[in-house]
Amino acid sequence: MDTSPPEAMIDLIKVSKIYPPEVQAITDISLTVNRGELLFLTGMSGAGKTTLLRLISRMEKPSKGMIDVAGMDVAKLPQCKIHLLRRKIGMAYQDFKLLPERTVADNIAIAMEVVYRPKSSIEKRTRDLLEQLNLTQKYTARAGELSRGEQQRVAIARAVANWPEIILADEPTGNLDADTTARVMDLLHRHNRKGATILIATHDKTLYQQDTHRVIELSFGRMRAPQAEMPDADDAYGEFIPPVSEV
User: Fold this and answer.
1) Cα–Cα dist 2/4, whole Å
2) Which of 211, 209, 213 has the alpha carbon at shortest distance from 198?
3) How far apart are CA 138 and CA 103, in angstroms?
4) Which residues neighbour 184 within 8 Å (Cβ) at sequence distance 6 or greater?
5) Which residues are CB-contacts of 20 (< 8 A; sequence separation ≥ 6)?
6) What is the DSSP string of 2-64?
7) What is the pTM of this model?
8) What is the arrangement of strands in the sheet containing 214-219, beginning at the earlier edge strand?
9) What is the mean pLDDT of the segment spanning 26-44?
10) Quick one: DSSP state of residue 68?
11) Which domains does the chain have, with CATH numbers?
12) Mapping DSSP to helix (H, G, I), strand (E, B) and coil, where does residue 66 land?
């Protein structure tokens, strides 16, 4: 039996992020996520969940602290090598970031095309994902013509399409009904079982109440032990999400 310690996939040490002029988004976050782990990041809107995911994916750089992702020092990673990090990460953004004039299939295929997957493989994977997410009939539809819930599912399909080592999902079920939420969570759990390290940021406690995976709660940019009940996000301040500084 293998008794070696788990391998860290994501390691944050005393990470802080301050946005100009003096907006303290997160403060002294230290967190280790092991390879193959599924972790829930919880907390009301404005707690710092989105900021943390943006730091891990190098959409932002930390003001202080160290971030290691898949053996890369993210804060010191030169611009010319950021693509090496991004190839390991599938990101489902809150604002979806789809190409509205392109088809659903085109939007999902992008992640696979950049690593030169065969065309036949791309089409099969795209159709499989759309079937899992109950979007089979939307293959040729333009992304801009979809409902928000449909766009959200396309964004999730794109995030997992290339079987990334790390999946970062920011409120992945925020626009979905219960049945569709179950489909999305089943898809994410399936990828986790195949070895993907997954961070799910959510204020919806129903996603993790019956789950056995680790839960980390953020409150005003700091980590704390999860509470039995959390305030409803509608009663909280909106999350501060600055413009993307690096792509």
Assistant:
1) 6
2) 213
3) 8
4) 133, 153, 156, 172, 173, 176
5) none
6) --SPPPEEEEEEEEEEEETTTEEEEEEEEEEEETT-EEEEE-STTSSHHHHHHHHTTSS--SE
7) 0.87
8) 89-92, 166-170, 197-201, 38-42, 214-219, 222-224
9) 95
10) E
11) 35-61+77-226 (3.40.50.300)
12) strand
Give the Cα separation of 115 and 151 in Å (integer). Answer: 23
Contact indicator for 177, 134 with CB cutoff of 8 Å: no
pLDDT at 3: 53
Report residue 181 CA to chain centroid gap.
15
Q: How far apart are CA 92 and CA 54, in angstroms?
A: 11
Question: Contact 119/172 with Cβ under 8 angstroms?
Answer: no
DSSP string, 183-226: HHHHHHHHHHHTT-EEEEE-S-GGGTTT--SEEEEEETTEEEPP
pLDDT tens, 124-180? Answer: 999 999 999 999 999 999 999 999 999 999 999 999 999 999 999 999 998 899 999
For residues 224-244, b (16+ Cβ closer than 10 Å) or e, as one string?
Answer: eeeeeebeebeeeeebebeee
pLDDT digits (tens, 9 = 90+) for 56-110: 999 999 999 999 999 999 989 999 999 999 999 999 998 899 999 999 999 999 9
Beta pairing, strands 222-224 & 197-201: unpaired
Cα distances from 171 to residues 8, 35, 45, 58, 231, in angstroms, run 24, 22, 10, 19, 16
CB within 8 Å of 163: residues ≥ 6 apart: 191, 194, 196
